[in-house]
Design goal:
The complex is a heterodimer.
Chain A (H helix, E strand, L loop, with lengths): L2 H39 L15 H11 L1 E4 L5 E11 L2 E9 L5 E5 L19 E2 H5 L10 E6 L8 E6 L4 E6 L4 E6 L2 E3 L11 E7 L8 E6 L2 E6 L4 E7 L5 E7 L20 E6 L4 E5 L4 E5 L10 E5 L4 E8 L8 H11 L4 E10 L5 E11 L12 H11 L5 H15 L6 H12 L8 H20 L5 H26 L3 E3 L6 E3 L21 H5 L1
Chain B lengths: L1 H37 L20 H4 E2 L7 H27 L2 H5 L5 H34 L8 H26 L10 H14 L4 H25 L3
Helix pairs in contact in B: 1-3, 1-5, 3-5, 3-6, 5-6, 6-7, 6-8, 7-8
The chains are: A alpha+beta, B mainly alpha.
Chain lengths: 535, 234
């Protein structure tokens, strides 16, 4: 087979991939730009609707209770704390108000002068990084980053660097002159690489400096274990081993004693550092320090673990849980509107409960406060500023590829219900869910437009076809990729047509015989000099 | 023999441009490295200065760029892109402009040999111009201990990826130049596609994926260029 013919087999699909990719990207870009332009340049419509009626006294009370923070005294008493703004001589002044559960005002004044000390619920959001940031870095023209932990005995001195080897999953240590000093893995710090065992796939990392040190300490979570790595002390300590179970989430309560992150009036020294480790099987392990203590507790199966907070005082361990009526909000955007209409379009119940976690791990209810929250504010049709954007997107989305839409939808589903919490997953979920990319797709119209493109391709290709197989392939291709498919088809398959000398119908020049009547192209008439040229 | 002669001929034709690119790349990169190495302690007081007792250490503080080599990265990428565009211009656009294709392809070598000779000359140019220089810079920085700890091999590989991206640009531009399509239709799709691959390769989360993207792009562009060139009438 000649190269010229062999290369055709590769070049044909290559050309299709190249043109299709470019057209798809171009169309997606236009689908984002056009609604934005419409939103910018269409006048009117953004005027606010008529103001609603003044809220009644009962509604205002409901709003105040709903908006107030519910705080517990150590004995379990609930107080409602809210802010009130008053205007005195043209100046606005905010003051803290403390209400009891019967809506009696107990106290008002400066926020710092609160008469009671309420239970504090230290920040429990993890402030580390997930594995995607570490093991699957994007690289830029400045090259990808290297995870290097310095060992700093003092502020101005670095004596060692420990570099994480992504492929091998352990650290390699170097001294200040760049000489290897050891390896750090799950079995501790070793001198040679064949002695060290890898950590396993990292899931979460958090680092901080102890109060008296300039050297970072790492919390290194893998699927089943949590390690504390202190390179200055040359130690790799297993803090928690879930054995066969998988660690799902880590929440820290006052673990690192970083007062700057908390509000100034919180007295965190009264609380023990605590770390909650949730496993995928639903167990919750609580690791307490000062003194060291490990206990396990379980919460009811219908609770959302993220709504539970833990505070460990010197004497007791408390758990606060916020509950609300109805099932939890679904993750998938297509189900969220329906959920809001069904469960949040009318006033709904919310409650907060305070439990004491016993040393045996059982929960003992101390107090509960329940209130009615106003319904979610929903825009009437035409009032939502996003309506015009949605309408424009509705029209431009009709030229999307049905196949690509299905693939994107599948990917979105996969991401939404996965454990991925990295920036990339968040961006895709935002783009396709909260960014309304999908909400305005009308599948019926989209398929109808695809069918129209197929008809156009059929009309164009019928007289130009070289074989039925190729013709049918292109029709299916255009149907699957809509406008991008049609443009790809035209870019690759457009050829001039002539009128057939036998049947008079239009025919392509890619094959010798006419696609309609089968007659070959006419031979040019023999002229006098042809004999000379042919010989 | 004819093939080698053609490659030599191509290298002679593009020699001027290659020398300019080598000089500019070496000068700029050398200056960046020199100014990086001049500071004896590139890590201690900049990125790691935020590490103080009792505080959280931001994860990005611990993620370090491979100093002092990181500054060479943008220069290498831009040089590779410029070299790719320049080679495609010299090898294809010039001939198109002067309408000398008919003369070139009537020689006693096949069209594919002519094309492969040009591609080979381009690959050699990339290796000699940028590949060798980049590897030398890497080895120099590693050998003299300018980095706080030895640079991982990944940095070297990423540099070679930039060079490969230059090659992608070259093939994209070459495809655009040999295409017989009208300028206002799809003539420049090859170059646009190569540009898109450049962005796509850099946002990949792993080197394997990055290599896969580049390999796919090279297969697409090379096969399309060959098909277009072999079937085109000049």
């Amino acid at each position: 087979m000649k190269l010229k013919h062999a290369i055709k087999y590769v070049a044909a699909p290559s050309g299709i991939i190249m043109y299709l990719t470019l057209f798809l990207i171009g169309i997606i870009i236009l689908q984002f730009i056009i609604p934005g332009i419409v939103l910018l340049f269409t006048p009117g419509q953004l005027s606010p609707g008529l103001p609603g009626p003044e809220p009644t006294e009962a509604e205002m009370r409901q709003q105040r209770i709903s908006g107030a923070s519910k705080e517990f005294l150590p004995d379990g008493t609930v107080h409602l704390l809210s802010w009130s703004t008053t205007e005195i001589n043209g100046e606005f002044k905010s003051e803290r108000q403390v209400w009891d559960v019967n809506d009696n005002l107990l106290w008002s004044g400066e926020g710092r002068e609160l008469p009671n000390e309420y239970l504090q619920w230290p920040m429990h959001e993890p402030s580390g990084s997930y594995r995607e940031d570490i093991t699957r870095q994007m690289f830029s023209p400045l090259f990808s980053r290297i995870l290097m932990v310095p060992v700093k005995p003092s502020e101005e001195e670095i004596t060692e660097y420990w570099r994480y080897e992504r492929g091998k999953r352990y650290f390699v240590g170097f001294d200040a002159k760049g000489r290897k000093i050891g390896y750090a893995g799950s079995n501790g710090i070793k001198q040679f690489s064949n002695q060290v065992e890898p950590f396993g796939q990292v899931k979460y990392i958090c680092s901080w400096c102890p109060q008296d040190s300039y050297s970072p300490v790492l919390l290194w979570q893998t699927r089943h274990r949590l390690y504390k790595i202190d390179f200055l002390a040359r130690s790799v300590e297993v803090i928690f081993d879930a054995q066969q179970e998988e660690i799902d989430k880590i929440l820290m309560y006052n673990w690192r004693r970083i007062e700057s992150y908390y509000s100034a009036d919180a007295n965190y020294s009264e609380y023990r550092p605590a770390m909650r480790l949730d496993t995928k099987s639903g167990d919750h392990h609580l690791w307490l320090r000062d003194p060291n203590e490990l206990l396990m507790f379980r919460i009811p199966a219908d609770w959302d673990p993220e709504r539970a907070s833990v505070a460990a005082t010197k004497d007791k361990i408390f758990l606060r849980y916020y509950g609300e009526q109805g099932p939890p909000q679904p993750k998938h955007f297509l189900l969220q509107d329906e959920w809001e209409k069904k469960y949040r379009s009318s006033p709904f119940q919310e409650w907060v409960e305070l439990y004491q976690i016993e040393r045996t791990g059982t929960l003992k209810l101390i107090n509960r406060f329940e209130w009615t929250s106003p319904p979610y504010k929903t825009f009437q049709s035409g009032q939502d500023p996003r309506d015009r954007y949605k309408k424009a997107r509705y029209y431009v989305k009709t030229i999307s590829s049905p196949l690509l839409d299905l693939a994107s939808h599948w990917y979105y589903n996969k991401l939404v219900y996965s454990d991925r919490e990295d920036d990339f997953a968040g961006f895709i979920i935002f783009l396709m869910g909260e960014g309304d990319y999908y909400q305005t797709t009308n599948r019926t119209v989209n398929l109808a437009v695809s069918l129209l493109m197929v008809c156009l391709a059929s009309w164009h290709g019928c007289s130009r076809r070289t074989s039925w197989a190729s013709f049918v392939f292109w029709l299916v291709f255009v149907g699957a990729f809509n406008l991008a498919g049609l443009l790809t088809y035209l870019a690759l398959m457009h050829t001039p047509v002539i009128k057939c000398h036998a049947c008079g119908r239009r025919r392509g020049l890619e094959r010798v015989d006419c696609v309609w009547c089968g007659n070959e192209l006419p031979q040019p008439e023999r002229r006098k000099l042809d004999l000379v040229f042919n010989n | 023999m004819r093939f080698i002669a053609l490659v030599k001929n191509q290298l002679q034709e593009i020699l001027g441009g290659l020398i300019v690119v080598v000089i500019v790349f070496t000068f700029l990169s050398g200056f960046i490295l020199w100014s990086g190495i001049r500071h004896p302690d590139p890590y201690h007081y900049s990125e790691y200065s935020g590490i103080t007792p009792g505080n959280t250490v931001s994860f990005y503080t611990l993620l370090q760029r491979p100093k002092p080599l990181w500054g060479v990265g943008p220069v290498l990428l831009v040089s590779a892109v410029i070299l790719g565009a320049m080679l495609a211009s010299q090898q294809f656009a010039e001939q198109q402009k002067r309408r000398t294709w008919a003369f070139t392809i009537h020689r006693s070598v096949s069209r594919s040999t002519i094309l492969w000779a040009r591609f080979s000359a381009a690959v050699i140019a990339f290796i000699l111009c940028l590949g060798v220089m980049w590897t030398m810079f890497y080895l120099y920085v590693s050998a003299m201990g300018a980095s706080p700890c030895p640079l991982p091999v990944r940095v070297l590989i990423e540099g070679w990826i930039f060079i490969l991206l230059g090659l992608v640009i070259y093939f994209g531009a070459a495809l655009s130049e040999v295409s017989a399509k009208k300028k206002y239709t799809t003539k420049y799709f090859g170059a646009v596609f190569a540009g898109m691959i450049l962005v796509l390769a850099l946002v990949q989360l792993s080197l394997t994926l990055c290599f896969a993207v580049i390999a796919l792009a090279l297969v697409i562009l090379v096969s399309d260029t060959m098909d277009t060139f072999l079937s085109r009438e000049f």
